[in-house]
Write a structure and sequence with these properties.
Helix content: 10-25%
Strand order of the largest sheet: 1-2-3-4-5-7-8-10
Shape: elongated
Strand content: over 45%
Largest sheet: 8 strands, antiparallel, barrel
Number of strands: 10
Structural class: alpha+beta
CATH architecture: Beta Barrel
Number of helices: 3
Distance between the termini: 44 Å
């Protein structure tokens, strides 16, 4: 797990030869949906729940339009059902970025998740929410300011967070799955940027040349 986290953060550096690195945090609005099953009475008991996410990101551009981003985040998912159910994950999104304008990006890619704890208002909930691994598809948009990023993202979980329930359907035996859905609002802060490093080197070089009476172009 540790090796995977390090590899994800270093991916832009390895592939692109450049990297921006920073911190991000924000709000989760999460839900758990039931697939292959329609029962308004049951589904009405499942309501949206607020949670938090926070962690690190690393990103870089392959060319003027396309880039990569890797993140390692703590993410509080779950649902409100006769009380709050908190599913605590370490998630690793790996996203392809497309630059729509000078500061606006579209993002899409897989998200790998490991649930290390499940709790409710009544105590431990791991007996019901026992599937620790999750795989999701992320999609969203990001606005890049001078140092800050502002993001909106939606994650669709593909795996069931609890053991699927089998029932006899019209086409044979089917399984009811319980899958994560999360809408994220986030703010990021870039601690390190290759672009800012290059600009700092250029400024320091210009000061050196002016001090020594050297006038030349970079």
């Amino acid at each position: 797990m540790r090796s995977l986290i390090v590899a994800c953060l270093l991916l832009p550096q390895i592939v692109l030869g450049q990297m921006d690195f920073g911190l991000k945090a924000g709000l989760n609005v999460s839900d758990i949906v039931m697939t292959n099953y329609i029962n308004p009475d049951v589904e009405s008991d499942l309501r949206l729940k607020a949670g938090l996410h926070a962690g690190f990101f690393a990103s870089g551009m392959m060319n003027e339009r396309v880039g990569l981003m890797g993140e390692v985040l703590y993410s509080n998912k779950g649902v409100k059902a006769n009380g709050n159910i908190h599913l605590h994950y370490v998630v690793i999104p790996l996203l392809l970025q497309y630059k729509l304008s000078s500061r606006f990006f579209a993002e899409v890619g897989p998200e790998f998740g490991y649930m290390f704890s499940a709790t409710s208002d009544f105590g431990n909930a791991t007996s019901n929410y026992s599937n620790k691994l999750d795989l999701g598809i992320d999609g969203g948009f990001r606005l890049a300011a001078e140092r800050f990023d502002f993001g909106l993202r939606y994650c669709v979980g593909m795996l069931s967070v609890r053991k699927p329930i089998e029932f006899a359907g019209t086409s044979g035996n089917e399984k009811i799955k319980y899958q994560n859905r999360v809408l994220q609002f986030s703010v990021g802060y870039r601690l390190w940027s290759d672009e800012s490093y290059v600009m700092a080197r250029r400024k320091s070089g210009a000061k050196f040349r002016r001090y020594h009476g050297v006038f030349s172009k970079d």
